[in-house]
Design goal:
Elements: E1 6-7, E2 31-36, E3 48-50, E4 56-63, E5 68-73, E6 78-84, E7 87-91, E8 98-102, E9 107-110, E10 116-120, E11 126-133, E12 142-143, H1 145-152, E13 156-158, E14 164-166, H2 185-188, H3 196-203, E15 204-205, H4 207-213, E16 219-223, E17 228-229, E18 234-240, E19 255-261, E20 264-268, E21 271-275, E22 280-283, E23 289-293, E24 300-306
Parallel strand pairs: 2-3, 16-17
Antiparallel strand pairs: 1-22, 2-4, 4-11, 5-10, 5-12, 6-9, 6-11, 7-8, 7-10, 9-15, 13-14, 16-18, 18-24, 19-22, 19-24, 20-21, 20-23
Length: 317
């Protein structure tokens, strides 16, 4: 494989102006990363590390303590696992319908069709890794009305072309572009208010439960026959020491490897590379590879495989 299909954690290039809340106090220190695919950034400043379109997007969000990502929704799947820190996820029209706290390694397959946000409630800079369904991630982000209204007060306007304009920098909307309309009451009625009791048991998997499940075979995390049953356009497996035989195999679909803990030896026909926690590696269809922990101690890795399922939505309450 080519080295440019491995994105090292230390080489990630952030964008601090990716979304409409980039100037809103409490959200103005977040960093967004597009690792694989087009992503959903609203800013032309967003760097894309790998432009391959495997049927889903890989991204990340980095935030200092107390920094929050504003309420939004997607038309396709949005899955997060916590790489570093402690995070609170909340949802609902005003963010008060339900919440869950995730620790390092936990994974959350957020239901489609609800407003959601998240914040770093840890004591240090935190990082969450994201999987978004579809090559275009469902056509972008749908913001709760108050987010658009608050942003306008801080100089940012989202055009109906999906691009941000910063009035503080003298930018104005082109003549053929109008501000993105906010959702009306009839449209908002389609966004359900669901409790934590309805969401968490079916959409959250805890790291140490997955460590216990992944023995001589990977634990199936997201899929039709997995712990979190869904068909979002990709399947997610969790690997630990002993889950994979160190033998070369090829898939007929794109595969993304994302180490959580430990160091992993990735062997391909042209050599061996070591993947570190936070790294992301893209394997092309038909590309033979073998994977195994390279050192003793704790080792875990999330593997994402493209499927032929639609990108979503698959959950409606």
């Amino acid at each position: 494989m080519r080295d440019d299909r491995i994105v090292r954690y230390g080489d990630l290039i952030p964008c601090k102006t990716a979304f409409i809340d980039a100037h809103t106090p409490g959200s103005d220190q977040k960093e967004n990363f597009t690792i694989i695919g087009g992503g959903v950034s609203e800013s032309p400043d967003q760097h894309v590390h790998i432009r391959e379109r495997p049927g889903f997007n890989i991204g990340a969000a980095g935030q200092p303590p107390k920094c929050r990502n504003s309420l939004h929704s997607h038309r396709t799947a949005e899955v997060f696992f916590v790489l570093k820190g402690r995070w609170r996820f909340f949802w609902g029209r005003w963010g008060d319908a339900g919440e869950v706290v995730l620790e390092e390694g936990d994974i959350f397959n957020i239901p489609t069709g609800i407003f959601r946000g998240f914040e770093n409630i840890g004591t240090d800079y935190g990082m969450i890794m994201a999987i978004l369904g579809g090559d275009d991630a469902g056509g972008g982000v749908i913001w709760a009305p108050q987010v658009i209204e608050d942003a306008a007060g801080h100089g940012l306007v989202l055009g109906d072309n999906g691009r941000l304009y910063d009035t503080k920098r003298g930018e104005t909307l082109p003549g053929d572009v109008t501000p993105m309309p906010v959702l009306g009451d009839a449209e908002l009625a389609d966004y359900p208010e669901v409790t934590a009791g309805e969401v968490v048991p079916h959409h959250v998997a805890r790291y140490w439960d997955l460590m216990a499940l992944a023995g001589k075979a990977p634990a199936k995390v997201i899929g039709p026959d997995a712990l979190l049953k869904d068909r979002p356009g990709f399947a997610v497996d969790f690997l630990t020491r002993g889950s994979e035989a160190d033998e070369m195999r090829a898939q007929d679909k794109h595969v993304v490897l994302m180490p959580m803990r430990g160091y992993w030896r990735l062997r391909t026909e042209d050599g061996t590379r070591v993947l570190n926690p936070g790294d992301t590696a893209l394997m092309l269809p038909g590309e033979a590879h073998a994977l195994s922990p390279s050192m003793t101690g704790e080792a875990s890795l999330y593997r994402i495989t493209a499927t032929k399922d639609p990108a979503g939505p698959t959950w409606r309450g």
